Task: inverse folding
C-alpha cells in the first residue's frame, strides 16, 4: 500500500469532484439531504458512460447473439464479444476464451463448485475455505461436499481479521482438492495474500479459486501474476449493471469440466442418444445471456481505463484510513476488522446500539450504509456480534462525506444516550 | 428529522434500554423462537397459561431497538389476556404496521402499542416491530419456530 506522503500527493492529484460528475445518481437528495453513498461493497453506481452504452444497445442494437445471420444479431454479437475482449485485457487473462460471462460472482462460484466438483471432488476429499468468506463462497462448496462425502475445512482468522497463514499451510494435504478464498473480505475489508496462497497451494497441486468481488472494483488485478486457477467477480460492484459477471478459469481446468447448465448456445450436436458440447467459453454459457449487462460491463472497463485507476486505489485507501481514524476517535465505536492490509470496507459497531438502528438513523441523514451480517455469519460469530454497520467506499466518495458519516454516528449516540 | 423522532420515541428508547419481562420462564407452557435472518434479530418468547388466560409472558434474545421495545411492550400488553384477545391484538398490530389498519379512523384495542405505527414510514423496519408478535402468535398456536424474512 502507498506510503502516507506519496498517498497525500495522490489525494491532491485525484480530482474527485470531476469524477463525481460522471455518476448521475450522486447528485440526488435523500430525506432532504445530499446522498452520501457508502454502500459500495453491496453495489456500486454506474457512470454516464455505462448508462449511455446500455441505452444505445437497447435503443439501436438489441438482438439475440450467436444466432442470427441478420445485421442486428451480428452487431450485438460483435459488441458482446468486444466486452469479453475488454475483460480479458482488464484482468490480463492469457486467452479471451478463458473468460466466461456469468450472472455475477455467486453464479461463478456455483459454476466452479458444481462443475469442477462433479469431476474432481470425491469421497473423503477436502475443500478449503476461510472463516471470512461470504456465504456465496461457502455454501456451493458445502453442498458439493455433502453430495460427494467430502469435507469442508476452514482456514481460521486472528482477532484483527487476518488469515492465519501457518494454519492454512497445515490444512493443505494430498486430499485437498480446492482452495476457495476471497481476495478482499466483504465484511472486514481484509486484503488476503492470494498470490502467496496460490503459490503454497500449488506446491500441493491444489487449484485456487479467488473470489474477487471486492478487489476488482478497487485496485488493478492480474490473474497471470496471481497464477490463480479460477477468478470470479461481479459487474455491479465495479460500476457496471447487475446481471453481469465473469468467471476466469485456466483452460486446463475448464476444458476438463462438464457443463454447469445446459441448453441453447452451448452445444455442438444434440441427439436423444447423446450430445456433444461447444468449446469454452460457450460450453458454460447456456441460454441467452444478459447481453446489455455484459456490454455495460465492457463500458465500465472502458471507464476504469479512462481514469488513473492506480491513483484511484491510492485515493480510496487514504479515504479508508481517514474514515477509520475519524470513527475510532468516537468513544464507544469499535472497528471490526483491523487487518494491516485493507480495502474499501469499514465495519463497526456502536456500543449499546444495534446496527439496524444505526442504519436507519444514518439513512435519515441521507447516508447509505449496510447494517447486518453481510452474508458472513461465521465472521459475526467469530467477533461475537449479531451484525455490524458497514461503510464501504469508492473512488467517488469524499472526505466531506466521511465527516458527515462521523457526525451522524455522533448523532446515533445522542439518540441512544 | 421529524420522521426519525416519530420512530425513535422516548418510550421506545426507554423500553430498549430497560426491556420489561426480559427473562426466561422455566415452567412456560409454550415457547417459540423468532428469527429475522436478514438482520440477525433473534428472540425466544415464553408463555405461561392459567386456563385460557396468559398468566405470564416473557422474552429473551437480541435485536434492534424497535424489535426489543416491541417485544417488551407486547409482554406488558398480553399479560392477563385470553387467547382470543391475544389473537385479536396480533391481528390489529400486524395490520397497523403493514398499513391495513388506520389507527386514527378504525376501532382498535392497541392502546399504547399505537406508538409503533411510525414504522410504516420505514418499510425495512416493519419486520423488526412485528417479530415478537409473530413469535408469540406461533407459540400460542403450537409452532415453535418463526422467521420473518
Result:
Amino acid at each position: 500500500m502507498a506510503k502516507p506522503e506519496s498517498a497525500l500527493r495522490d489525494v491532491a492529484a485525484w480530482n474527485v469532484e470531476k469524477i463525481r460528475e460522471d455518476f448521475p445518481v450522486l447528485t440526488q437528495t435523500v430525506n432532504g439531504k445530499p446522498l452520501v453513498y457508502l454502500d459500495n461493497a453491496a453495489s456500486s453506481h454506474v457512470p454516464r458512460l455505462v448508462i449511455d452504452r446500455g441505452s444505445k444497445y437497447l435503443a439501436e442494437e438489441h438482438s439475440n447473439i450467436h444466432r442470427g445471420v441478420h445485421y442486428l444479431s451480428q452487431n450485438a454479437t460483435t459488441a458482446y464479444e468486444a466486452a469479453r475482449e475488454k475483460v480479458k485485457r482488464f484482468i490480463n487473462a492469457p486467452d479471451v476464451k478463458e473468460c466466461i460471462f456469468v450472472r455475477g460472482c455467486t453464479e461463478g462460484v456455483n459454476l466452479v463448485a458444481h462443475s469442477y466438483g462433479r469431476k474432481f471432488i470425491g469421497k473423503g476429499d477436502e475443500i478449503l475455505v476461510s472463516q471470512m468468506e461470504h456465504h456465496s463462497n461457502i455454501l456451493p462448496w458445502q453442498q458439493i461436499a455433502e453430495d460427494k462425502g467430502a469435507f469442508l475445512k476452514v482456514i481460521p482468522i486472528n482477532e484483527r481479521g487476518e488469515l492465519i497463514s501457518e494454519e492454512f499451510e497445515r490444512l493443505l494435504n494430498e486430499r485437498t482438492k480446492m482452495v476457495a478464498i476471497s481476495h478482499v473480505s466483504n465484511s472486514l475489508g481484509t486484503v488476503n495474500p492470494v498470490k502467496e496462497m496460490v503459490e503454497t497451494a500449488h506446491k500441493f497441486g491444489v487449484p485456487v479459486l479467488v473470489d474477487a468481488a471486492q478487489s476488482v472494483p478497487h485496485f488493478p488485478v492480474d490473474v497471470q501474476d496471481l497464477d490463480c486457477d479460477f477468478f470470479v467477480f461481479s459487474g455491479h460492484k465495479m460500476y457496471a449493471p447487475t446481471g453481469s459477471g465473469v468467471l476466469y478459469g485456466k483452460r486446463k481446468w475448464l476444458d476438463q469440466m462438464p457443463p454447469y447448465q445446459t441448453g441453447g448456445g452451448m452445444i455442438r450436436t444434440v441427439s436423444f442418444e447423446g450430445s456433444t458440447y461447444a468449446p469454452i467459453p460457450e460450453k458454460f454459457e447456456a441460454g441467452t445471456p444478459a447481453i446489455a449487462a455484459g456490454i455495460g460491463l465492457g463500458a465500465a472497463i472502458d471507464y476504469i481505463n479512462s481514469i488513473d485507476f492506480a491513483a484511484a486505489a491510492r485515493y480510496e485507501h487514504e479515504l479508508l484510513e481517514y474514515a477509520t481514524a475519524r470513527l475510532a476517535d468516537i468513544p464507544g465505536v469499535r472497528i471490526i476488522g483491523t487487518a494491516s492490509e485493507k480495502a474499501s470496507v469499514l465495519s463497526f459497531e456502536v456500543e449499546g446500539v444495534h446496527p439496524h438502528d444505526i442504519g436507519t438513523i444514518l439513512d435519515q441523514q441521507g447516508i447509505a450504509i449496510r447494517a447486518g451480517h453481510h452474508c458472513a455469519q461465521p465472521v459475526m460469530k467469530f467477533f461475537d456480534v449479531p451484525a455490524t454497520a458497514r461503510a464501504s467506499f469508492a473512488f467517488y466518495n469524499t472526505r466531506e462525506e466521511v465527516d458527515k458519516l462521523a457526525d451522524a454516528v455522533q448523532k446515533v449516540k445522542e439518540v441512544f444516550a | 428529522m421529524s420522521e426519525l423522532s416519530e420512530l425513535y420515541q422516548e418510550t421506545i428508547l426507554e423500553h430498549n434500554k430497560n426491556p420489561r419481562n426480559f427473562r426466561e420462564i422455566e415452567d412456560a407452557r409454550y415457547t417459540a423462537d423468532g428469527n429475522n435472518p436478514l438482520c440477525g434479530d433473534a428472540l425466544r418468547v415464553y408463555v405461561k397459561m392459567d386456563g385460557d388466560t396468559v398468566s405470564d409472558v416473557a422474552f429473551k434474545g437480541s435485536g434492534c431497538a424497535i424489535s426489543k421495545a416491541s417485544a417488551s411492550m407486547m409482554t406488558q400488553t398480553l399479560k392477563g389476556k385470553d387467547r382470543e384477545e391475544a389473537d385479536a391484538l396480533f391481528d390489529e398490530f400486524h395490520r397497523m404496521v403493514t398499513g391495513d389498519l388506520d389507527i386514527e379512523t378504525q376501532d382498535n384495542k392497541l392502546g399504547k402499542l399505537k406508538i409503533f405505527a411510525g414504522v410504516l414510514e420505514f418499510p425495512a423496519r416493519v419486520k423488526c416491530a412485528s417479530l415478537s408478535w409473530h413469535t408469540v402468535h406461533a407459540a400460542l398456536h403450537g409452532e415453535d419456530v418463526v422467521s420473518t424474512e
User: Anything to note?
Assistant: The first strand of chain B starts at residue 30 and ends at 36.
